[in-house]
Design a protein that fits this description.
Blueprint lengths: L3 H25 L11 H19 L3 H28 L4 H25 L3 H4 L4 H7 L2 H13 L6
Helix pairs in contact: 1-2, 1-4, 2-3, 3-4
Length: 157
């Protein structure tokens, strides 16, 4: 992750994850925070899936990014639809507007992460392997080896 945009997406994803953890914990204790979870069981499952996927998104893996996008699209897509209908009907409250904003953020961050990983040119073209790069990308070492090879003249029978 060499781009500022990649780091910002990862930070926003972790911040949104932390916000949802706080919201879920407060809802389970009976305290109302900004918005309540749509389904408590699915919210907890989504929190675990999200944490694992964000850790792999930082490593620039495509499959966890797709899982992250699909899981959030399925959960927050329904949540978005349920909160758009009262806005269209004109019966919206402050809670439905806040839930609508949270659902939009819940879909936008995985979408940005997906496109960021998908369009990253360095992910496949220049993979970094610290175990072998010191040997293969070290031209000075290659020159020393070539000089020694020229001076060593062994006879073979």
């Amino acid at each position: 992750m060499k781009n500022l945009s990649s780091w910002l997406i990862a930070m926003f994803a972790f911040m949104f994850w932390g916000f949802r953890v706080i919201t879920t914990v407060l809802y389970s204790m009976g305290t109302e925070f900004v918005a309540e979870p749509m389904d408590m069981t699915m919210e907890v499952i989504l929190l675990f899936i999200t944490f694992i996927c964000i850790c792999f998104i930082i490593r620039r893996k495509l499959l966890p990014t797709i899982i992250y996008l699909i899981a959030h699209a399925l959960y927050y897509g329904v949540y978005l639809y349920q909160n758009v209908m009262p806005v269209i009907d004109g019966t919206a409250t402050i809670n439905s507007y806040m839930s609508l904003l949270i659902a939009l953020i819940g879909i936008a961050i995985p979408l940005f992460a997906f496109f960021d990983v998908l369009l990253d040119k360095n992910r496949k073209a220049h993979p970094v392997n610290k175990q072998t790069d010191w040997f293969y990308k070290n031209e000075e070492y290659d020159r020393k080896v070539d000089d020694r090879a020229d001076r060593n003249q062994y006879r073979t029978m």
